[in-house]
Amino acid sequence: MTPEDQYMADFMAVFSGVERWGPGSDDDSLRALRAVAHTPQRIVDIGCGKGFVTRLLAQHTRAHITAVDNEPGALQALQQYLDQQGLSPRVQCVNASMTELPFGQAQFDLIWAEASAYVMGFEAALQQWQPLLQHDGYLVISDLVWLTQQPSTEATTFWKQEYPDMQSVSRRLQQIQQAGYRLMDHFTLSEQAWRDYYLPLKARVAEVKANMPDSCAIVDIEREIGVFEQHLGEFGYQMFVLQRS
């Protein structure tokens, strides 16, 4: 196994034991859903992970939902839940890359992407996903942003390495306008959204660390947790509710 393969194996060994794969909370997701003015009929959840938000959307809408992720294990966990809850007829799991989505134009009236668009880049996501939306369809997307003009050296150093394209809210709003969307709402995710992600992750790291004493992945995850615990407020996730114009 190459060092890269070992890193990813360790990384997935940690994340396979937690539900959320990024910051988020039910309250924040439902606030965003309330800002969608129409009743969605066809939703795609891009970068769904184990489907935490997919499940919420299935509970609070009657839409047909397509859940997309490139990690088969995550989709298997979601499919098991869907089967148990009798939701399989209304929710379809698709194993695909968010950069090569196997969908036609104007196929959805709501695209949902929480804590996932950074993988391909926020601007690229705005542009590449737009044709998938019906006229006046909605895109709900969250992105990690700077919340201060003078972040600490530690936070700056960490995020420059982990997310070089991290921007301010105002810069993201400019990009949204340039991409041809109407801004319907935006807000900073609550601190609870971060705790719902990091506290289970921290507990999972403590659980598996003894079996992976030399894991570089563990070191990186612990460093990220430390930056969150010391510097949250300098950065945060911003939820954007957009309508295709």
Q: What's the number of helices?
A: 9
Bulk shape: globular
The ordered string of helix (H) and strand (E) elements is HHEHEHEEHEHEHEHHE
Percentage of residues in DSSP E strands: 15-25%
**Residue share in helix:** 40-55%
Could you characterize what this model shows?
The chain is of the alpha/beta class. It has one domain: Rossmann fold (3-Layer(aba) Sandwich), CATH 3.40.50. 44% of the residues lie in helices and 23% in strands. It has nine helices and eight strands. Strands 1, 2, 3, 4, 5, 6, 7 and 8 form an eight-stranded mixed sheet that branches. Helix 8 (191-208) packs antiparallel against helix 9. The protein is globular, with a radius of gyration of 18 Å. The mean pLDDT is 94.
Set down the secondary structure blueprint.
Layout: H1 3-15, H2 26-34, E1 42-46, H3 52-60, E2 64-69, H4 72-85, E3 91-95, E4 108-113, H5 122-129, E5 133-146, H6 153-162, E6 167-168, H7 169-178, E7 181-188, H8 191-208, H9 216-231, E8 235-244
Helix pairs in contact: 1-9, 2-3, 8-9
What are the main properties of this structure?
245 residues; alpha/beta; Rossmann fold
In short:
This protein has 245 residues and is α/β, with parallel strands linked by helices. Helices cover 44% and strands 23% of the residues. The chain has one domain: 3-Layer(aba) Sandwich (Rossmann fold).
